[in-house]
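Need a sequence for this fold. Nothing fancy.
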């Protein structure tokens, strides 16, 4: 298992570096469109809790209006949310806003596959079972994501995350990555929360 985890890290770094190089033109265009479309920073960064409860700030392209957290549904996001910018809707639809997290993967704060990053106030509500999801690095995509994404409840997401950790291997990661592409480019299901007004574990802000 230790050897597999070593190769997981090697694969994370190699794929992330290659992806960032290939995606650099897209990143430049995305940054320009964000600045043209609305005022505010290019990236949205907010504290998340990672492996062993260590805090970090993921990189995400900003898809919401400046100060959106303090408006409307807070961390929750509805499909017709007025806080989402015009270009932000497109970025979110195709998962472009998540791509800068490749930087966090290279830094060792995240992995390509793992439980999605969570918020501190959510971690404070965890019981012992739920806290198990913090035993590995958070990922850009996850076992929970390919089983419903944001259509899942908080409890369902965590059950899938713990199931992933207990049954992890490199082949499972490859399966999740391939399935993620299918969801993003074909089905595009689960982009927004099923009950956007509820205090759930929201990772799409």
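Here you go.
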């Amino acid at each position: 298992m230790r050897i597999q985890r070593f190769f997981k890290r090697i694969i994370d770094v190699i794929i992330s570096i290659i992806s960032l190089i290939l995606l650099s033109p897209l990143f430049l265009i995305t940054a320009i469109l964000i600045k043209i479309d609305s005022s505010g920073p290019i990236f949205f960064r907010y504290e998340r809790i990672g492996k062993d409860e260590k805090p970090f700030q993921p990189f995400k392209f900003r898809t919401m209006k400046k100060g959106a957290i303090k408006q409307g549904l807070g961390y929750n996001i509805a499909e017709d949310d007025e806080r989402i910018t015009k270009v932000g809707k497109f970025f979110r639809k195709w998962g472009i806003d998540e791509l800068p997290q490749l930087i966090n993967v290279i830094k060792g704060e995240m992995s390509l596959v793992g439980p999605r990053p969570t918020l501190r106030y959510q971690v404070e509500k965890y019981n012992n079972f739920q806290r198990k999801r913090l035993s590995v690095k958070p990922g850009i995509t996850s076992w929970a994501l390919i089983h419903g994404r944001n259509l899942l409840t908080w409890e369902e997401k965590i059950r899938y995350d713990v199931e992933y950790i207990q049954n992890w291997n490199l082949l499972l990661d490859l399966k999740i990555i391939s399935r993620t592409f299918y969801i993003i480019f074909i089905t595009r299901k689960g982009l927004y929360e099923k009950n956007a007004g509820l205090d759930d574990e929201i990772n799409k802000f």
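For context: Confidence is low (pLDDT under 50) at residues 191-205.
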